[in-house]
Amino acid sequence: MAETGALLSVRNLSKTYGALVVTDNVSLDIPERELHVIIGPNGAGKTTLIHQLSGRLPSNGGKVVFAGEDITRLPMHQRVRRGLARSFQITALLDGFTALENVAIAVQARSGSSFRFFAPVARDRKLNDEAMAVLARLGLEDRAHRRAGTLSHGEKRQLEIAVALATGARMLLLDEPLAGTSHEESAVLVELMRALKQTHTLILIEHDMDAVFSLADRISVLVYGKVIASGPPAEVRAHPEVRAAYLGDEQADKAPEAAAAGGGR
Amino acid sequence: MNSSTTNIAPAHLAEVRVSFRTAGFAALAMFAILAALPLLTLVTGDAFVLVVATRIMIFALAALSLDLILGFGALVSFGHAAFVGIGAYAVAILNAYGVNDLLVQSLVAVAVAALFALVTGAISLRTRGVYFIMITLAFGQMLYFLMISLSAFGGDDGYTLPARSTVLGMPLLENNLVMFYTVLAVLVGAFLLARMLIASRFGRVLRGTRDNAVRMQAIGFSPSPYQLTAYVIAGSIAALAGVLLANQVEFVSPAYMSWQRSGELIVMVVLGGMGTLAGPIAGAAAFILLEEWLSSFSQHWKLGFGLILLLVVLFSKGGVGGLVKRLLGGAHHG
Lengths: 265, 334
Ligand SMILES: Nc1ncnc2c1ncn2[C@@H]1O[C@H](COP(=O)(O)OP(=O)(O)OP(=O)(O)O)[C@@H](O)[C@H]1O
Ligand SMILES: [Mg+2]
Description:
The complex is a heterodimer of chains A (about 260) and B (about 325).
Chain A: E1 6-17, E2 20-31, E3 35-39, H1 46-54, E4 61-66, E5 69-70, H2 76-81, E6 84-86, H3 99-109, H4 125-137, H5 153-166, E7 171-175, H6 183-196, E8 201-205, H7 209-215, E9 218-223, E10 226-231, H8 233-238, H9 240-245, H10 249-262
Parallel strand pairs in A: 3-8, 3-9, 6-7, 7-8
Antiparallel strand pairs in A: 1-2, 1-4, 4-5, 9-10
Helix pairs in contact in A: 3-4, 3-5, 4-5, 7-10
Chain B: H1 2-44, H2 48-70, H3 81-96, H4 102-124, H5 129-149, E1 159-160, H6 176-199, H7 201-211, H8 213-218, H9 223-249, E2 251-252, H10 259-272, H11 278-295, H12 301-315, H13 319-333
Antiparallel strand pairs in B: 1-2
Helix pairs in contact in B: 1-2, 1-6, 1-11, 2-6, 2-9, 2-10, 2-11, 3-4, 3-5, 3-9, 4-9, 6-7, 6-9, 7-9, 10-11, 10-13, 11-12
The site of magnesium ion (MG) has 3 residues of chain A, from helix 1.
């Protein structure tokens, strides 16, 4: 697997709930600096797959290798420490913390021991400066001192990405980051992801086809827990099974222009 | 939409700061009143007030330590009285062996409590929610029955101390005023320590885990070591409360660590407002004053007590502290 040169290798991953197969023998290879989009209808098992890759849920079978190391049985926090972080489809922030604190605590997690009992952390310049820089990348500076629970839905979605970014991970698993964002917010996020392609490896789950085709290096299509197609956008778009199972013909026709406009690889 | 949210921003900012400051001010006010209390007893000549106030502060210390894990760590320990009991029995058992120095007794109490917390906490923290409540309750009861079976130290009947502990060989604590100020000093010290812990890197991880444990894992924290550390610190502080309790009443009994006692500590924290540090001090005061007052009316006082508790919990978000804050806030707006 390591020979493939992939940063993340997934082999025959499965997840079942009783008789229900939610992840069905999924294999993927994501090379470094690839932005890999996973699409699929509602309930296809996309979030479940992210849960398995991030360590939120155990798998029933198969293997996950990250940076040459078998991480199949590692808990979530250790995967993050190794550079594999995620965001949540259902926003999961520290609602009682300010936006800045939500990001600063992610910086704190990778900046030395947290068994420090004396100095007030709110005045830790190093953590705050780094956190503020991440907030700035998402245009959230003026929300820094607002409690996360009081932010608008779109701002929470952006903060969710800011926190994932602040972990310092080299690979990010983003579960529908654009869902519920306004037009402007989503534009900020799309530009951010385009920029992140230069420095990060990404798995992106997304329903917004314009964004998908403008960003993706490769696309995998998940239906009933199975990868029915995987490859460059043009190839996936032309795939007959995909057209039948997922993309309406209308969307499939629209896609080429979107890809061209986005300047995807 | 955008402009309206901008307008709200300073208000929320202020709210965060104010609640932190109000808690500080509330504690400061309570400590000032307590520090001045002996003057009142000089005037009235009634020493009973001092005795009750000392008792309040001892339970406030135990409640404050419970707030560290209950209010800031979301760990509902139903065995916290066990640590108070460890502190009390450290005094009794060392006394039986001729060791009466307060500092030595306190050190032993804290060491044993920390060890007990480390072992039982490590096991308890493998569970969550209701199971955590049950297992901490079980550990507390285990210790309770152990002390009942130790006939060398009075078993069920308890152990009467011949005198209070000495400080550097001097019987300073025999004076109720010295006892009072010693307890006050320990309480203030514990409050400041707890406040510092909560505001530190460590405290932030603890608070974050309380808010959303999955989020904490998703940014690279394993919550358990932090929760366990908080559990050990809380147990150690509660043991100090036990040392002081044994000294004040000059008597030690397994009843100090019964599950009812643990429940009462939870009530004090909830009554005063969880996660505020100042609240549990007020909660302990309210609890013990109510207990004194109601028991003077009838022997069925516990019924009335239960009703009052129910009303506070149902109608006052944030306990007594929240009630006061809302009354004050209401006055401001009105
Ligand atoms: N704990 C569970 N027990 C049983 N079935 C579950 C459980 N969690 C998820 N499922 C099922 O697994 C399937 C996949 O769910 P998942 O949330 O991964 O889909 P998804 O592709 O992310 O959908 P969406 O696009 O709506 O976010 C669904 O049919 C869901 O009902
Ligand atoms: Mg999903």
